[in-house]
Every structure is written in structure tokens, then in C-alpha cells.
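sry for the spam today, last one i promise. C-alpha cells for design, 72 residues
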């Protein structure tokens, strides 16, 4: 999770207009492509809590790509 300061610094450093537009939409309460429903947020929070309790596992990007390649 990012702190407000982390996010502010990342926004300031961003030069990609598309990303800034999406951030603006989200902050305006719009439905940008990064907007989550309450159900999605609850699921993410549940998974985070399990991972912090040592009951879940996170995966690196390379691990996810490898798992997806096996499904094809």
C-alpha cells in the first residue's frame, strides 16, 4: 500500500498524460479503468490479510507468466 506522500511523489514524477488523465478521472469519482468495486476491494483486503498472516502467497511477474503459459 502506498502512503499519500508516495502517491503524490509518483504523480509529480509522471509525465505520461494518459496516466495523469486516468488518475484525474479516479479522483473525480469517475470510472477510470483503475476503479475497483467495493466487492473487489473487499477481496483484495481479504487476500492481503491472509498473506500478512502467512497463509497466502504472492507471485512475481515471471511466476505469473510461467503459470499462464502452462494453461495454454
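last one done:
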Amino acid at each position: 500500500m502506498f502512503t499519500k506522500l508516495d502517491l503524490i511523489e509518483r504523480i509529480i514524477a509522471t509525465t505520461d498524460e494518459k496516466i495523469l488523465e486516468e488518475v484525474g478521472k479516479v479522483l473525480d469519482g469517475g470510472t477510470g479503468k483503475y476503479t475497483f468495486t467495493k466487492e473487489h476491494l473487499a477481496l483484495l483486503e481479504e487476500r492481503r490479510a491472509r498473506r500478512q498472516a502467512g497463509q497466502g502467497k504472492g507471485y512475481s511477474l515471471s511466476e505469473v507468466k510461467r503459470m499462464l503459459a502452462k494453461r495454454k
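The longest helix spans residues 38-52. ok im logging off now
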